[in-house]
C-alpha cells in the first residue's frame, strides 16, 4: 500500500493586492458617499412623520422611499414590499438609474374606499420592456388601472400633461419590473389621499362643501371646467354675438352659427385652416377604454368591435358611437365571438367581417376565425370557409375591394402568426364563394409585419400600407417607416418614399387625396438614448399624388393625446379617433377637420393649399384631388419638380427620356459572380422556418437562422451578368427618386460604376437605346473610372455596385423546431437559449423576436429565458421565495419556526377565486381575476399568521426554535445553516419548510453526495454510479465496489499517466492499480494472465508523504514465473486535487515498479509529454530489450494513455550507431528514447516534432502536443 498526501497552494500576487486596495478605496468612497446622503436626509427629518414613515425617510414632512431595502456597494436592492401609510408622500427608484433585473412593490394604504391620487412627476424606463403596474387594491388581483413604460413625462414638459392615476378602494399597489437589457433614470411619483385632482390645475380651489362622504372636489373658475378644472370652454365668449354663443345650461360648449365652426366658433365655413375638437363625452362603463380594437362607419354610426381591456367584468364586444349626437350605445349580443384584440374589420354592404385576432386564453391564442356581424339584425354568425384560411393572424389589415371581374373580396395584408412568424403575403377571402387563397403577387419584394396602418383608395384601386413592426436583416426586429402601394387588379407591389418616422399600432385614413397618419408606438430606445415615448401624438400626411411626406402640427388641445393602438375613421370630411393606450386605456373621441378646398378662391391659392390636403382647380373652383386609375402619370404633373442628381428634371421630362440606372442586391458573399434572383429576395424576407418551407423555392438554414433560396440561374430575367454583378437598364422616364424606387421595386438600388467592363456594357446598351431614338444628349458625370468625366447621352446616371449572393450550404430539408407558441411549459419553452421567452403570469411561451408585439400593453409581469422557478405560489417552499412574487403571501403555521404555505394573496389576507355565476356566457370569460379574501385559509384564531410584506423573524424551516427572535437555536433533523435550510454533510434532501434529510448511500466510497439529488461524489477514481456501485469498465477499471473497490488494470512494460486536473476530479482522494506479471514460456512466445481479485492479499510495502517511489521484486522471492495467480495491487490515497500520477511496471529478470506523483496547477501549460524514467538492470534480458530484429516493431518501455485510453504516447529505447568496436563514439550516448503517439483504435502513429521519423509500420497523423481533449 502506498499512502500519499499533498498540500494546497494559495498564492496572493502583488497585482491582486493592488486590486484589492483599489476595490477597498472604491468601497470606502461609496460608504462615504452613502454616509453623506444619509446625513443630508437625516438633517431634514421632521419628527411629525418619524413613526409613520415605514421603510423610508421623512424629508420636509413627506415620506420618501429611496429603495425597498438598504443600498449595498453599487447595487440598490429593490426586491421586497414597501408599505406607505401617510396621507401624502412620494416614492422613487432612487437617485440614480434603476437597477437591472429589478422587482419593486409599493403598497399605499389609506382608509376604506378613500380616493387616492398618484401623480407621475417623472417617469423614464425602457419602452415596452420595463413597466410600472398600478392596481386599485392591495394585490395584483385587484383591478389594473395603468401600465406605464417608456418616457411618460419628459424633462422639458412644454404643454404635456402630468399623468394622474386615481384609485377608489383606499389602496394602491404599484409593481415595477425591469429586464436585463439597460436602464434609465426611473421614476418619481407623488401620492395623496382625499385630495383634489391635479390641485385643480391652478384654475379653481379645493372644497369639501356638498361633497359625498367628505370627499373634496374642485370649484372651477369661470371659463374652466372638468374635475380638475383643466378644460377651457367658451373662449372669447364664442365670438358672441356674430359667430355663436356659450351654452351654460349643459356641457358649457360653444354653439356656432351656421357660417362658423371650430371649438370657439372662430373659423369660417368652409375654412382654410384645420382644427381639432375633443368632444365633451361623459365617460361610462359602456364606453370602457380599450386598445387594438377596430372601428368603421355605417349609417352615421362608428361601430367599435373588440379590443384589449385591463378588466373584462363590464366589457362589451360591440359598441357604436353616434357621430352627430356624440353619444354611445351598447349593442347587446346573446352569443358571438370571444373577446379579442389585434383583429381586422371590413364592411361589405350591411355586414361587418371580423377576421383573426388574439384571444385572451390558450397557449397558441391567435385565431383564424371569420365572424360576420349583420348590422340591421345585430347578430353574429361564424363562417367556415373551404379551404380554411392559411394563417391565423394578428396585427394585420383588411379591406373589402372589387377585383377586375367585379368579384368582391376581402384582402388580408401581412400580420403576425405565432406559427409562421411575420407574414409577407396578401390573402384574399372571396365573399361569395366563402373561400381563401394566398395571392401570388408581383412587382417589388416587400417585407410584411405587425401593427401597420393601411388605407384603400377605390378610385385608383390601390391599398397604401405604412409602418409596422417587422423582421429586419441579421435576425433583428423593429419598427419601420416603410411605405408600400398594392394594386388590387394587377396584384403588384410598389415601394414608395419612406416617412422617416418609424412606428406601429398607429392609425391611417384617406382624406382629400391625402393619407393622414396619427400616433403610434415610436419606441426607439437604445443603451445610449435618454428614453423614448412609447406612445406618440405625431401627425403625418402622405401626398398620394406627389409621393411626399409632411409632418403636420400636433393637436393644440388642452391635454396630451399621445396614444397607440387606437382606431380612426372618416365621416363627413372629418377624422374621428377613438381609444388607444397611453399608460392607461383611453375612451375619449378626438375629431380632426382638415382645411376645405372650397375655401380657396383662386388657382394660386388652391395649388398652394397647406399640407394635409391636396386640392386642384377645376372649372373655376377648387375641389379635392381624387386619384385616377393607374394609367395616370405618377407623380402627378402638378407636383413640384424633384431635381435629378446630374441632369435637370425638366430636360429629361420634356424629351420623355429613359432614366438609366443599375440596380444591385445586398447580401452576404459566397459566390461574388452571382446576383440575387427574386426568389432569393422573397426567401430572405421569410422570418421563420415554417414559413420558409412553405415556399418551394426556399430552404431554412438553421445555423444562420435565415431562409435561403435554392440555387438557380445566375441572374434573373431582364438582368445581365457582367463580371461579378448583375446589371439592368432602368427605363423610368421620371426623376432620380422615381429611378431609385424603380430599382427598389426590383430589389436593388443605384450606385457607381466600378470597372471598365461595367462601363462598356452600359455604353453598348445605351447605343441600342440611341438606335431606337430613346436617348438624347445630356451630360452625366458620376463614373468613378478615370477619364470618364462626361458622356454624350441623356439622362444617364451610373450607380452600379457589386451584387453578391449567399447560397445554402445544404439542400437537404430539415424539420423545423416546435414553434414557441406551441410549447406549454417553462422548461420546454426555455430549452433553447434565447429562442423563446416564457411569461409566467400569462403561462405563455412566445418567440423572442415577437415579445414586444405579443404583450404590447405590458400583459407579462415577468419573463424568463432560463432557470424556471415554480409557476404558482403553492410550489414555493420558503417565505423569502414566496414574498419575492408579487402575487403570493405566506401563511406561517402555529409553531413559529418558519414552516408555512405559500398561496395567492393580498395585504389583507389569502385569496380564493369567486365562484362563477351560472349563465351561458360564463364559458366566454377569458380572464376571470375576481378574487375575494378568505381568512379561513390562514386563520389567526388557530394560531396561523399571514405575511404579505415581510416574513416573520424566525425562519428555521421547522427544524429549530429561535432565540433573540430570529436566531435558530439548534438545527435538528440532520440540518445545518443559519436557517436550517440545508442538510448536514453526508446527507441529502430538501429540508426547507419541514423537509427531511436522508443519509448518502455511497457504499463507503464517498463521504458526501449532492445535497438535492443524493448522487454520491465518489472518492476513488474508477468507481462510478449514483451510489458508487459500479466500476468504470469502459476505461479498464475492474473490481466490485459493493464488496471492495475498483482497480485500473495496468499493462506490463508501459508507463501510464493519470491527470486528475478537471473540475469533475476534485472529489478524488484515492486511485487503485493492479498488475499481473507475464508468464514467460519461451523466448518466442509470452502469455499474460491476470490474477484473481478475491484472493488473499499480502502487504509488501507502505510509504507516506511521497513524491516518487521505485521498487523491484525478484522472481526468486515471489516466484511469479511459476505461480500464475500472483497480482500486484497498488493503493494510492490521501492525495488532494489537482494531481498528476505516473505509474509503470516493467518485467525482465525482476519486476520493477515506479510511481511518481506531481502536484499541478489547475491551469497548467501544455507540453508534449510528461517525463519518462528508465531503470536498467544488468542481465541477459537487457540485450533482448535493445536488440530489434529486422522489420520488427520495437517493444515500448512506457505508455502514457490519453483521450479515454483511445490513444497513447509510446516510449521506446533504441541503440544509436556505434563504432566497429561496439561502443558509442566519444561524447555520445549509446541509447536514446523515442516517442510516438499511437491511436489504439486505428493503430496510427502521430508525426514527431522536430522532424523525428515515425516508427516502422505506422501511419503518421498530426502530432498531439497535449494528451488531453
UniProtKB/TrEMBL annotation:
Transmembrane segments: none annotated. The keyword Metal-binding does not apply. Residues 78-194 form the CUB domain. GO terms for molecular function: carbohydrate binding. It is a single-pass membrane protein. Keywords: Disulfide bond, EGF-like domain, Glycoprotein, Kelch repeat, Laminin EGF-like domain, Lectin, Membrane, Repeat, Signal, Transmembrane, Transmembrane helix. PANTHER family: DISTRACTED, ISOFORM B, LEUCINE-ZIPPER-LIKE TRANSCRIPTIONAL REGULATOR 1. This is Attractin-like 1a.
Amino acid at each position: 500500500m502506498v499512502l500519499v498526501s499533498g498540500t494546497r497552494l494559495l498564492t496572493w500576487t502583488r497585482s491582486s493586492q493592488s486590486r484589492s486596495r483599489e476595490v477597498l478605496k472604491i468601497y470606502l468612497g461609496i460608504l462615504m458617499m452613502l454616509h453623506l446622503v444619509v446625513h443630508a436626509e437625516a438633517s431634514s427629518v421632521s419628527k411629525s412623520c418619524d413613526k409613520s414613515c415605514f421603510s423610508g425617510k421623512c424629508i420636509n414632512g413627506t415620506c420618501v422611499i429611496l429603495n425597498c431595502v438598504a443600498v449595498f456597494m453599487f447595487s440598490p436592492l429593490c426586491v421586497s414590499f414597501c408599505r406607505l401609510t401617510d396621507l401624502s408622500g412620494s416614492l422613487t427608484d432612487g437617485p440614480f438609474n434603476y437597477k437591472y433585473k429589478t422587482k419593486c412593490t409599493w403598497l399605499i394604504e389609506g382608509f376604506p374606499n378613500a380616493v387616492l391620487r398618484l401623480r407621475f412627476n417623472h417617469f423614464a424606463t425602457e419602452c415596452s420592456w420595463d413597466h410600472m403596474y398600478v392596481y386599485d387594491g392591495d394585490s395584483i388581483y385587484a383591478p389594473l388601472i395603468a401600465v406605464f413604460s417608456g418616457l411618460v413625462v419628459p424633462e422639458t414638459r412644454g404643454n404635456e400633461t402630468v399623468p394622474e392615476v386615481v384609485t377608489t378602494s383606499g389602496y394602491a399597489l404599484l409593481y415595477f419590473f425591469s429586464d436585463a437589457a439597460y436602464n434609465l433614470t426611473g421614476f418619481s411619483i407623488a401620492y395623496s389621499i382625499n385630495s383634489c385632482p391635479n390641485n385643480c390645475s391652478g384654475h379653481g380651489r379645493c372644497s369639501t362643501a356638498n361633497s359625498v362622504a367628505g370627499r373634496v372636489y374642485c370649484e372651477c373658475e369661470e371659463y374652466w371646467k372638468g374635475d380638475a378644472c383643466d378644460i377651457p370652454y367658451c373662449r372669447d365668449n364664442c365670438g358672441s354675438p356674430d359667430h355663436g354663443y356659450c351654452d351654460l345650461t349643459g356641457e358649457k360648449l360653444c354653439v356656432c352659427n351656421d357660417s362658423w365652426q371650430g371649438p370657439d366658433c372662430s373659423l369660417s365655413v368652409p375654412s382654410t385652416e384645420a382644427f381639432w375638437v375633443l368632444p365633451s363625452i361623459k365617460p361610462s362603463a359602456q364606453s370602457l377604454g380599450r386598445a387594438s380594437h377596430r372601428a368603421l362607419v355605417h349609417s352615421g354610426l362608428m361601430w367599435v368591435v373588440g379590443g384589449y381591456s385591463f378588466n373584462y367584468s363590464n366589457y362589451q364586444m360591440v359598441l357604436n358611437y353616434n357621430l352627430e349626437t356624440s353619444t354611445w350605445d351598447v349593442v347587446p349580443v346573446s352569443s358571438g365571438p370571444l373577446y379579442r384584440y389585434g383583429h381586422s374589420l371590413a364592411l361589405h354592404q350591411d355586414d361587418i367581417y371580423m377576421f383573426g385576432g388574439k384571444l385572451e386564453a390558450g397557449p397558441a391564442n391567435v385565431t383564424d376565425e371569420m365572424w360576420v356581424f349583420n348590422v340591421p339584425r345585430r347578430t353574429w354568425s361564424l363562417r367556415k370557409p373551404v379551404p380554411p384560411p392559411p394563417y391565423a393572424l394578428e396585427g394585420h389589415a383588411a379591406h373589402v375591394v372589387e377585383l377586375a371581374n367585379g368579384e368582391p373580396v376581402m384582402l388580408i395584408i401581412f400580420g403576425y402568426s405565432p406559427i409562421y412568424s411575420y407574414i409577407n403575403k396578401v390573402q384574399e377571402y372571396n365573399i361569395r364563394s366563402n373561400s381563401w387563397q394566398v395571392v401570388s403577387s408581383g412587382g417589388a419584394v416587400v417585407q410584411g409585419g405587425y401593427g401597420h396602418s393601411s388605407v384603400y383608395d377605390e378610385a385608383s384601386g390601390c391599398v397604401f400600407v405604412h409602418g409596422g413592426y417587422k423582421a429586419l436583416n441579421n435576425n433583428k426586429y423593429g419598427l419601420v417607416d416603410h411605405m408600400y402601394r398594392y394594386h388590387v387588379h394587377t396584384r403588384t407591389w410598389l415601394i414608395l418614399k419612406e416617412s422617416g418616422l418609424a412606428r406601429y399600432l398607429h392609425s391611417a385614413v384617406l382624406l382629400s387625396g391625402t393619407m393622414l397618419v396619427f400616433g403610434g408606438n415610436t419606441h426607439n430606445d437604445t443603451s445610449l438614448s435618454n428614453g423614448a415615448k412609447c406612445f406618440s401624438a405625431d401627425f403625418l400626411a402622405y401626398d398620394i399624388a406627389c409621393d411626399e411626406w409632411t409632418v403636420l402640427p400636433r393637436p393644440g388641445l388642452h391635454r396630451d393625446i399621445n396614444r397607440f393602438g387606437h382606431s380612426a375613421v372618416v365621416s363627413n370630411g372629418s377624422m374621428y379617433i377613438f381609444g388607444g393606450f397611453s399608460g392607461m386605456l383611453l375612451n375619449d373621441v378626438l375629431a380632426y377637420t382638415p382645411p376645405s378646398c372650397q375655401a380657396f378662391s383662386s388657382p394660386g391659392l388652391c395649388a398652394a393649399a397647406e399640407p394635409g390636403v391636396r386640392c386642384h382647380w377645376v372649372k373655376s373652383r377648387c375641389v379635392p384631388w381624387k386619384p385616377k386609375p393607374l394609367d395616370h402619370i405618377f407623380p402627378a404633373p402638378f407636383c413640384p419638380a424633384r431635381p435629378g442628381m446630374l441632369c435637370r428634371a425638366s430636360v429629361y421630362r420634356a424629351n420623355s427620356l429613359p432614366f438609366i440606372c443599375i440596380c444591385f442586391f445586398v447580401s452576404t458573399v459566397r459566390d461574388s459572380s452571382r446576383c440575387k434572383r427574386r426568389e432569393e429576395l422573397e426567401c430572405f424576407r421569410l422570418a421563420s422556418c415554417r414559413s420558409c418551407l412553405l415556399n418551394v423555392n426556399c430552404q431554412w438554414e438553421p445555423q444562420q437562422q435565415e431562409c435561403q433560396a435554392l440555387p438557380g440561374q445566375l441572374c434573373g430575367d431582364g438582368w445581365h451578368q457582367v463580371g461579378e454583378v448583375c446589371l439592368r437598364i432602368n427605363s423610368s422616364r421620371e426623376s432620380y427618386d422615381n429611378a431609385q424606387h424603380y430599382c427598389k421595386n426590383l430589389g436593388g438600388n443605384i450606385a457607381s460604376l466600378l470597372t471598365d467592363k461595367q462601363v462598356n456594357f452600359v455604353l453598348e446598351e445605351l447605343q441600342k437605346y440611341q438606335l431606337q431614338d430613346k436617348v438624347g444628349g445630356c451630360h452625366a458625370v458620376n463614373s468613378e473610372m478615370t477619364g470618364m468625366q462626361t458622356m454624350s447621352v441623356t439622362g444617364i446616371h451610373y450607380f452600379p455596385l457589386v451584387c453578391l449572393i449567399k447560397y445554402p450550404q445544404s439542400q437537404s430539408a430539415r424539420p423545423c423546431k416546435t414553434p414557441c407558441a406551441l410549447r406549454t411549459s417553462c422548461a420546454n419553452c426555455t430549452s433553447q437559449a434565447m429562442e423563446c421567452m416564457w411569461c409566467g403570469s400569462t403561462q405563455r411561451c412566445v418567440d423572442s423576436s415577437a415579445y414586444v408585439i405579443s404583450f404590447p400593453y405590458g400583459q407579462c409581469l415577468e419573463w424568463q429565458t432560463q432557470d424556471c422557478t415554480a409557476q404558482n405560489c403553492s410550489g414555493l417552499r420558503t417565505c423569502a421565495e414566496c414574498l419575492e412574487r408579487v402575487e403570493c403571501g405566506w401563511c406561517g403555521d402555529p409553531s413559529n419556526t418558519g414552516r408555512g404555505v405559500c398561496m395567492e394573496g393580498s395585504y389583507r389576507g389569502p385569496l380564493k377565486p369567486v365562484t362563477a355565476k351560472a349563465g351561458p356566457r360564463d364559458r366566454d370569460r377569458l380572464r376571470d381575476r375576481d378574487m375575494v379574501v378568505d381568512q379561513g385559509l390562514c386563520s389567526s384564531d388557530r394560531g396561523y399568521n399571514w405575511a404579505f410584506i415581510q416574513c416573520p423573524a424566525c425562519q428555521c424551516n421547522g427544524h429549530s426554535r429561535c432565540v433573540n427572535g430570529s436566531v435558530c437555536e439548534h438545527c435538528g433533523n440532520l440540518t445545518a445553516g443559519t436557517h436550517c435550510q440545508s442538510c448536514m454533510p453526508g446527507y441529502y434532501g430538501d429540508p426547507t419548510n419541514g423537509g427531511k434529510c436522508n443519509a448518502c448511500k455511497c457504499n463507503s466510497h464517498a463521504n458526501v453526495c449532492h445535497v438535492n439529488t443524493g448522487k454520491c461524489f465518489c472518492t476513488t477514481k474508477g468507481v462510478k454510479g449514483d451510489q458508487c456501485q459500479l466500476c468504470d469498465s469502459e476505461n479498464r477499471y475492474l473490481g466490485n465496489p459493493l464488496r471492495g473497490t475498483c482497480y485500473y488494470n495496468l499493462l506490463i512494460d508501459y508507463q501510464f499517466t493519470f491527470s486528475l486536473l478537471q473540475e469533475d476530479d476534485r472529489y478524488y482522494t484515492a486511485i487503485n492499480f493492479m498488475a499481473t506479471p507475464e508468464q514467460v514460456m519461451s523466448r518466442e512466445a509470452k502469455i499474460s494472465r491476470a490474477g484473481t481479485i478475491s484472493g488473499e492479499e499480502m502487504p509488501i510495502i507502505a510509504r507516506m508523504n511521497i513524491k516518487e517511489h521505485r521498487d523491484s521484486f525478484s522472481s526468486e522471492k515471489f516466484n511469479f514465473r511459476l505461480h500464475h495467480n500472483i497480482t500486484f495491487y497498488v493503493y494510492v490515497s490521501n492525495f488532494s486535487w489537482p494531481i498528476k500520477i505516473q505509474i509503470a511496471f516493467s518485467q525482465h529478470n525482476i519486476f520493477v515498479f515506479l510511481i511518481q506523483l506531481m502536484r499541478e496547477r489547475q491551469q497548467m501549460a501544455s507540453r508534449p509529454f510528461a517525463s519518462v524514467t528508465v531503470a536498467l538492470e544488468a542481465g541477459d534480458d537487457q540485450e533482448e530489450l535493445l536488440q530489434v530484429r529486422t522489420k520488427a516493431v520495437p517493444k515500448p518501455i512506457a505508455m502514457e494513455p490519453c483521450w479515454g485510453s483511445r490513444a497513447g504516447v509510446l516510449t521506446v529505447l533504441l541503440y544509436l550507431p556505434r563504432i566497429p568496436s561496439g561502443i558509442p563514439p566519444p561524447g555520445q550516448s549509446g541509447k536514446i528514447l523515442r516517442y510516438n503517439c499511437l491511436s489504439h483504435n486505428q493503430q496510427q502513429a502521430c508525426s514527431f516534432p522536430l522532424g523525428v521519423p515515425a516508427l516502422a509500420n505506422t501511419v503518421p497523423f498530426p502530432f498531439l502536443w497535449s494528451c488531453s481533449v
